[in-house]
Amino acid sequence: MKIDLHIHSTASDGTLSPREILNMAQRLNLGAISITDHDTIDGTKQALAIGIPPSLKFLTGVEISVNPPPSFSCPGSFHILGYGINIDDAQLNHTLVRLQEARKNRNPRIIELLNHMGFELTLNEIREDSGECQLGRPHIAKQMVKKGFVQSVNEAFDNYLATGQPAYVDKYRVDCKRAIEVILNAGGLPVLAHPVLLNLKNDGVHEKLIVCLKEMGLKGIEAYYPEQPPDLTARYIKIADRHGLLITGGTDFHGSIKPEIKMGSGRGNFFVPYELYEKLISRIETGR
């Protein structure tokens, strides 16, 4: 039985609602899932309010945007996943509100830059097409595709919206040490998300960073990720084993924004074993 512990809903930049995610997970016979929206736990809250089907195990989750430690330069995406968190924790909710405001304030500047490049876009039209969700770059990219400015979401990011491109706007992030502390204080387990996307130069730098994060309280590594070759997954598992860290995995499912990535199976042959969920739960329940 397989699991998927990295799923985004309409509460952030996914295209399926929490209810639709629960229904799809059941149809796919997944053993366990976690909704890990960007800088919000609204998706997790909605899923719990709806009710988790008896056949499906569910972990509360979040994915927090963070800054790397001062001694490391990480040109890629640096995120910390939090599993088994108390969704009513005041410190966690306060931290996420600040991050959501940063995301919201970033969007008008991105639109302004695109307008100056000749792309006629407005936040209102993006909101009308996206519904009541947390707007972000994927929604802007999708609108660019709809209006024929680019052929795909990937093209929008590669040429305009990604780091270093002309419509990229940086945003506030939490220091990684602070994010780890917030997750731990909320009773959760902090896990380094998709280390492959950090774009670090070599395994040695990866391992030094992971050791540094472990000293801050990191408890696991997302070693299973569909956007990396099997040999890299094996390397991350070895690093986790060497340092006594938990191993997790998920597809980073976003629905139609990333149509090539399917829930539970990635590009078709991705598989995260159920035993990893069991080990996570055991660690959460023992509080170690």
What does this structure look like?
The chain has 288 residues and is α/β, with parallel strands linked by helices. The protein folds into two domains: 3-97 and 173-286, Alpha-Beta Barrel (TIM Barrel); 105-161, DNA polymerase, domain 1 (Orthogonal Bundle). Helix content is 43%, strand content 14%. The chain contains ten helices and eight strands. The protein has helices spanning 18-27, 42-50, 90-116, 123-130, 137-146, 153-161, 176-185, 203-216, 230-242, 274-286; strands at 3-7, 32-35, 57-67, 79-83, 174-175, 189-192, 220-224, 246-249. Strands 1, 2, 3, 4, 5, 6, 7 and 8 form an eight-stranded mixed sheet that branches. Helix 9 (230-242) links the parallel strand 7 and strand 8. The relative contact order is 0.17. The mean pLDDT is 92.
Can you summarize this structure?
With 288 residues, this protein is of the alpha/beta class. It contains 10 helices and 8 strands. Strands 1, 2, 3, 4, 5, 6, 7 and 8 form an 8-stranded mixed beta sheet that branches.
Please describe the biggest sheet, giving its number of strands, its sense, and whether it closes into a barrel. 8 strands, mixed
Apparent shape: globular
| First-to-last CA distance | 26 Å
Kindly state the number of beta strands: 8
CATH architecture designation of the largest domain? Alpha-Beta Barrel
- At the fourth level of CATH, the homologous superfamily of the largest domain is Metal-dependent hydrolases
Radius of gyration: 18 Å
Secondary structure blueprint with pairings:
Layout: E1 3-7, H1 18-27, E2 32-35, H2 42-50, E3 57-67, E4 79-83, H3 90-116, H4 123-130, H5 137-146, H6 153-161, E5 174-175, H7 176-185, E6 189-192, H8 203-216, E7 220-224, H9 230-242, E8 246-249, H10 274-286
Helix pairs in contact: 5-6
